[in-house]
Amino acid sequence: MAADLSAELRERIGQAAASRTPLRIVGGNSKAFYSQPAADAETLAVAEHAGIVDYEPSELVVTVRAGTRLAELEAVLAEHGQMLGFEPPHFGATASVGGTLACAFSGPRRPFAGSARDFVLGCKIVNGLGEELNFGGQVIKNVAGFDVSRLMVGARGSLGLLLQCSLRVLPRPETEATVAFPIAEPAAAIEFMNRLAGRPWPLSALAYDGVSVRARLSGAATAVRAAAANIGGEFDLGGDSFWQDLREQRLPFFQQRGDLWRVATAPAATQPELAGAWLIDWGGAQRWLKTAESAESVHRACTASAARATLFRGDGSPTRTPLTPELAALQQRVRDAFDPLGVFATYPD
Amino acid sequence: MPLSATFTRLCLDLLGAANVVTEPERLRVYECDGLAAYRTPPDLVALPETAEQVLGLMRLCREHRVPVVPRGAGTGLAAGAMPVTGGIVVGLSKMSRILALDPLNRTATVQPGVRNLAISEAAKAHGLFYAPDPSSQIACSIGGNIAENAGGVHCLKYGLTVHNVLQVKLATIDGELLTLGGPGLDAPGYDLLALAIGSEGLLGIVVEATVRLLPLPPATRVLLAAFPSVEQAGAAVAAVISSGLLPAGLELMDNPAIRATDAFVHAGYPLDAAALLLCELDGLPEQVAADSERAVAVLAAAGASEIRVADDADQRKRFWAGRKAAFPAVGRIASDYYCMDGTIPRKHLAQVLRRISEMSAEFGLAVVNVFHAGDGNLHPLILYDSGSDGEFAKAEAFGGKILELCVAVGGTITGEHGVGSEKIPYMCVQFGAGELQQFLRLKQAFDPDGLLNPGKAVPTLHRCAELGRMHVHRGELPHPELERF
Hints:
Chain A is α+β, with helices and mostly antiparallel strands and about 350 residues long.
């Protein structure tokens, strides 16, 4: 059911602030694995606060309530030949737009088109004082005030409840094709991907699964054909499903035993020395690791390689490469600026 | 309060006499940025050469409660770098080295005083470029670009500064060095990098930046389309975007702009056109060919009276010459002009231009319109004569009405110039008390004593109430919660 529940949600947060009750924001609940709310938190259900509020294909902008299902939004955009440029993973049929932005999840297109935060133009939030606030707007260029809209992306609801967002959308490419290059060594694959990305090919995804580098090309049919002929490789007719399965973590790699770590690093950086299986996405900037190593070892090895690790799915509590004390203190002050009473119960890091 | 002799001596001890300006005649250079109508003489200008010196200055200023105004190349257009009385200006022009260029990772790490264009010039040897290209790119610095989240002609396709910066080292008012972002495409914790970009020097001073470089497109083509009415040109912009094209640039000029620029650079524009659209397409040659075929069809269907196509570099340069020279060209036909910077949803282009033209008659001041049509960023140039009593005040009032109009149709008061000192009254038009208070709480998280660029970008509610005399609407006072005397 699409409905505007702003008033009810605002009131509920106001009451929680008055009674100092921590709240756990739940949209489609498809990403519960990615947050760790306080044990005594009450659920604030947002899934029914849904619906497309405004969509102007000629403006390349869509405004949606946070509970809107991602699949529903993508279907409406597709009817007009448009798409979400950051190609977000769903991790379940109930995935919502708000949850996707709160987690800052972006898919394989990210290095070439931009991340979730890059597509956010504005948002309406309720802060921890129960105030409904509007930031940003519906236009691409806007430098009035601090960029609070983008700050909300990845904050996992710890700064406020996302009520509504305006997102920039992109035209869908006329044609897409995937070419594959068998490469045995990860180091060679990383270098190959980055050499490719340094040339003006119409790339829209670049990944290495331990066997082959796959490159997705997008654009006019003539341009895709010309690029494919130039860079070589074998056409992979199963390319579309490969990118979807990579995005949704359905490839065999993700079914292996062990904790799943996400390692963020410079795309051409050497691999951190850690035992386990690797899958490399985003041309090298997002690396997935399946390992039995301890969190401490993972963080130590990643820090040594200027990489940052996040336990994405595992048996233990989520852990991330720690922030410096100065950054951690500033982050807490930023949090207090939005939620001084500690209503929102998830932890940003 | 003037700066104490002790504070000045400590600055001299920290930076050396060659890096501290105190002589009144040399200080005058720093009394304004590109918006010369707003001036305040600084008390002292510090010109640090290293990040450590910036951190030392910040500690001094925090200890002595001295306000700090950061300044890049001084090309800003919203008086964001205008000094404050009793404060210092920290000029970053001496920190102008490219520290590293990494072609495989496609990044450049630079000091804040590096010029925007210098990054692309250095990257060119590797077939790469830095995409954000504000009009002042030959002179403006990357630190200033980050502080203002600068845009430019190619934003529609390549994004703003915020989309093209990976990491920033920020000197806080406490004298701490924060690293925001990282060498990869994201970093843990809150996205404080996005928050710092466009914060107009209110949260910290950028002392180093790592920016993304993109492969240079091998082919570029520019289409020039003339339209018999501004309405048709506006509709053509919407039609181009709806057709699935993503031009690298999509610029519009109205008839006064066409005439003024053609008289200046002799670009050969059709002088009788009511509006001129410039559409730049780039990418692989095959992509450009396919896109331009589609664009020509769309522009023709939208009622273009003439379409010209430029393939070679000379032709492209000629097509762009007028648009790029618009500001100096207008400078020849009026003694002064006041450049506005509102953004509107594209669908309101024609309506907004019509209303600006009506207001031009009401105020008795001519207007020339050039703008980034692709992203709805207007730059009306209001012509006035500073030698004529009260004309600047009239131009300011007219500009304010344009910004109010932008907000009324769902746009914003600044697309790329920033708020600075100039547009601070209009922040109270775009934002309510709640949002402004949230901005102020956020500012306090970084700068509890309010020493960084005070009086810029975010007004206090009290200031809004004072300035609100211009915006009393249906008898309702702005911010009725504040006491008035």
